[in-house]
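Why this split exists: single-chain examples teach little about how molecules sit against one another. For that reason, every record in the complexes split bundles all components of an assembly together and asks for one structure covering all of them. Below is a record exactly as it appears in the raw files.
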Amino acid sequence: MRILVTNDDGVYAPGMWTLVEALAPLGEIVVVAPDREQSGVGTSVTLHHPVRASAVSPQIPGIETYAVEGTPSDSIILALRTLAGHVDMVYSGINEGANLGNDALISGTVGAALQGYFHGLPSIALSVGSLEVSDFTVAARLGLLLGDMIRTDLLPRQVLLNVNVPNKPLEEIEGLEVTRLGRRSYVDIIDEGHDGKRKYYWIVRGKPTWDVVPGTDIWAMRNGRASITPLCDDLTSQDQLSLLEEQRGSLMDGLRQAAIERSVRN
Ligand code: MN
């Protein structure tokens, strides 16, 4: 197996290299990651200027490693299209900081895994719930175990997993839960200032509001447990399909009415 590893904390982040070390039994590893921290960029892809990549020396000898002047998603696209050749599986992380609930949509860590999934590859995002992580080893081992289950067809190839692990040694972790995404929202604070020439706005993330519901990833991590959430790429709201369908005729009538009014005016 050939495994692509990326992250959003930058190519020298210790969490990624702990993961690379742990994944060695799974196969050959190639690292393609942003040259600097890119947390919070979600699935962003660079389209308005060229993206450069260069081979850099790995933190672990013998691992083919590239630094990309771009986002985590750029790294995956470059890797899969040209730098890494054939790849069987994608890992993103291990991120410093949990990626829970709605944050999955802005997370660069999950964004990169989503990009791998879009390309038809099994993809795993891994995060540890602390901004100053002291222990990546449980998350790294869980990553290896999940990858091995995919390799041996215990899990499907068409899989996108968001994994979060408490920042603790295994003895202190309360358990492992399979979860759905919870709801966690930030109140963004706008910091206004003046740089001498122009006014600026600085978007500051306020304290998140947690919706701690049993069965969710947020609940699991709040209770000191590791969490695995299987994701898919369907954002469709199933319960609102029929509500909108009921309004479809009125919307069409409204459009026709506007066209009639315009032709009368002309
Ligand atoms: Mn990050």
